[in-house]
Amino acid sequence: MKYLGPARKEKGHVIMPDSFRDVPEGQVYEAVELGGDIVLAIPPLDDKRLEEVIRIAKRGMAEHRAALERLAKH
What we know:
alpha+beta
């Protein structure tokens, strides 16, 4: 898991962190909400891949919860 930095919502749009500059323009993501957390994944997101994304995301969030909460406060 790689932490990219904080994203924010402005006027109905999600503004991504500066580390997102390397992502190609026009890249599309699937947004998945996991208990109030939002994860972005590159499509296609079939049932098998969605289960894997959820499993990995939950593990990563559990392992890094304290750090993510501190970062969210800044």
